[in-house]
Amino acid sequence: MTALEGARLEVDEALKAYEACVEREEAEYREEYERVTFMEYEAPAPDPCAEAFLRLVRAVRAYEAAGGHRDDLALGASRERVYAALDRG
Questions:
Q1: C-alpha span between 29 and 10 (Å, rounded)
Q2: Which structural domain range is residue 60 located in?
Q3: 67 dihedral zone (left: phi>0; alpha: psi -120 to 50; beta)
Q4: pLDDT (tens digit, 9 = 90+) per residue, 16-70?
Q5: Which of 18, 62, 66, 67 is exposed most, by the fewest CB atoms within 10 A?
Q6: What is the number of domains present in the chain?
Q7: Its domain of life (predicted)?
Q8: What b/e string do you get for 48-81 counting C-beta neighbours within 10 Å, with b at 16 or more?
Q9: 37: which residues sit within 8 A by CB, 6+ positions away?
Q10: How far is CA 8 from the centre of its chain?
């Protein structure tokens, strides 16, 4: 397995972990999900999916460092948020 293939595998695993976290949170809060996530954004409260998201961002950075391009990744609904985090540095 090349470094690029390994980095892509890590992106795929990190994305699955992040999506699973979001799904669990959505299931827990149901119709209150948007209100709860807004409150997490507005107040200094722990975000249960923050670590999973940071792992995803780090994995995409490693993929780019290995020679890959972020546009080649299927990040789905997370794409814009991941790109924004990458562009912020």
A1: 29
A2: 3-88
A3: left
A4: 999 999 898 878 777 776 766 666 565 565 677 888 999 999 999 999 999 999 9
A5: 67
A6: 1
A7: Bacteria
A8: ebeebbebbbebbbbbbeeebeeeebebeebeee
A9: 25
A10: 14
pLDDT value at residue 89: 74
Q: What angle do CA 31, 46, 36 make, to 5 degrees?
A: 15
Residue 15 CB-density burial (10 A; 0-12 exposed, 13-18 middle, 19+ buried):
buried
DSSP state at residue 43: T
Using alpha carbons, select from 73, 74, 67, 75 the residue that is nearest to residue 2. Answer: 67
- What pTM was estimated for this model as a whole? 0.81
Tokens of 47: 């975000």
* Token pair in block for residue 72: 């080649």
Q: Which two tokens stand for residue 81?
A: 């948020």
